[in-house]
């Protein structure tokens, strides 16, 4: 049996990690330690029927720990994941601190589980939730047809911006509910300003524009040549996870007024001849994928179908009309579960299994 620590146990993803542990019929953990900041230390949380007191983050909490799952800000992980590793734990980190470190594997168990054993720094990174939304599907299709190019448009939920994003969306929806807004430019922003809510890129809002009754073609921070950090993560992380350094990737990340579950429209080009029927057969054989693809009956994935569940949902599979060996598909994945907590936990299970 193995000792597991959850660092950031009282946060949204940490709480989801606990829900996942509670849902398992059996677990390999002889002990579970809950760790958080000084502000949350002393709280008592129930895990698998046991009341566990949250400990304050400190070096000694990792003594005797085999695996430590981290869901904390990048700057906290950058300091504390190496400390956990020095104390003998394998650190499985959900932040962006180590994802592109060449000495840290970036793991999706359905795609590259073997990489979890190659960890010279004692750290394994969990990918960004946007990239993760499509990795189960892309990994399966790559194994079958050899992926060459990806063009991706994301439709990202407010929860991708954390609890502040969720709170902002709910407040905005309440402010515009029942009002005739959106008829002309500025109506939504005016309604939010009237309600005392922050609006715009220079405000305290987590979004650079109103999200209620709107879509915002931006997620992340500004990088070179007008790209956002989220768009570059899709490119760089896809290459690393799939083991295709030269994969051609272009992404446009869009924030939509959905609380939880990211969706992606994917244009994927392969080296081998591919058909819709062959792709459906590959995807239907994957235990972590739900294939929902019958447009004649109005059946395709939506965030409302996917939220709260573990699988990735895939549908709208089409042969691209003007592009050879290319498929179009639509993918949905719960960004708090598979996009964060579940994949992190599944990595820990891989490590525990040895």
Give the key terms.
alpha/beta; six-stranded parallel beta sheet
Describe the protein in words:
The chain has 354 residues and is an alpha/beta fold. The protein has 10 helices and 14 strands. It has helices at residues 12-23, 74-86, 109-112, 129-145, 163-176, 187-194, 229-242, 276-284, 303-306, 337-353, and strands at residues 2-7, 29-36, 44-47, 50-53, 55-56, 67-70, 90-93, 123-125, 147-156, 248-255, 262-270, 289-291, 312-319, 326-333. The protein has a 6-stranded parallel β-sheet with strand order 5-2-1-6-7-8, with helices on both faces. A 6-stranded mixed β-sheet has the order 10-9-11-14-13-12. Helix 1 (12-23) crosses helix 10 (337-353), helix 4 runs parallel beside helix 7 and helix 4 crosses helix 10. It starts with a strand and ends with a helix. The model has no long low-confidence stretch (mean pLDDT 96).
How would you summarize this macromolecular structure in one to three sentences?
With 354 residues, this protein is of the alpha/beta class.
């Amino acid at each position: 049996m193995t000792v597991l620590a959850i660092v950031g146990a009282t946060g949204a993803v940490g709480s989801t990690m606990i829900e996942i542990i509670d849902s398992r019929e059996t677990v390999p953990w002889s002990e579970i330690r809950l760790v958080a900041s000084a502000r949350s230390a002393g709280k008592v949380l129930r895990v698998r029927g046991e009341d566990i007191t949250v400990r304050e983050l400190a070096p000694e909490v990792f003594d005797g720990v085999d695996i430590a799952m981290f869901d904390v800000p990048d700057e906290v992980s950058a300091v504390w994941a190496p400390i956990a590793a020095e104390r003998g734990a394998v650190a499985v980190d959900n932040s962006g601190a180590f994802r592109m470190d060449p000495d840290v594997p970036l793991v999706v168990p359905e795609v590259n589980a073997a990489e979890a054993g190659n960890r010279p720094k004692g750290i394994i990174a969990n990918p960004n939730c946007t990239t993760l939304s499509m990795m189960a599907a892309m990994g399966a299709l790559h194994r079958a047809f050899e992926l060459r190019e990806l063009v991706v448009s994301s439709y990202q939920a407010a929860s991708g911006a954390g609890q502040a994003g969720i709170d902002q969306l709910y407040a905005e929806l309440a402010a515009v509910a029942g009002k005739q807004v959106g008829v002309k430019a500025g109506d939504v922003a005016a309604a939010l300003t009237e309600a005392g809510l922050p609006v715009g890129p220079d405000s305290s809002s987590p979004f650079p524009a109103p999200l209620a009754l709107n879509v915002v073609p931006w997620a992340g921070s500004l990088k070179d040549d007008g790209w956002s950090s989220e768009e570059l993560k899709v490119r760089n992380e896809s290459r690393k996870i799939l083991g295709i350094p030269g994969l051609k990737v272009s992404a446009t990340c869009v924030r939509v007024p959905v609380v939880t579950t990211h969706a992606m429209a994917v244009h994927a080009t392969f080296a081998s001849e591919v058909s819709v029927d062959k792709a459906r057969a590959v995807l239907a054989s994957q235990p972590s994928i739900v294939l929902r693809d019958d447009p004649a009956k109005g059946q395709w994935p939506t965030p409302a179908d996917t939220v709260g569940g573990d699988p990735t949902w895939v549908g709208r599979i089409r042969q691209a009309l003007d592009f050879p060996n290319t498929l179009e598909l639509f993918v949905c994945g719960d960004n708090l579960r598979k996009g964060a907590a579940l994949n992190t936990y599944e990595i820990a299970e891989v490590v525990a299994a040895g």
